[in-house]
Specification:
With about 50 residues, the chain is an all-alpha fold. About 45% of the residues lie in helices and about 0% in strands.
């Protein structure tokens, strides 16, 4: 992948930016078990 973002790098892995596509995947994942979402992703989903 090219164009790495340095936004909020945590540890060795930076989370990819949340797009509509990944947000949909996260919503499906969260719907299956809301406790699995990291706080940042859960907050980002609430903004959509």
């Amino acid at each position: 992948m090219s164009g790495e973002d340095d936004e909020e790098s945590v540890g060795d892995e930076a989370d990819p930016p949340i797009t509509e596509e990944t947000a949909f995947d996260l919503k499906v994942f969260a719907a299956s078990d809301p406790n699995n979402l990291p706080p940042g992703e859960a907050a980002a989903l609430r903004e959509l």
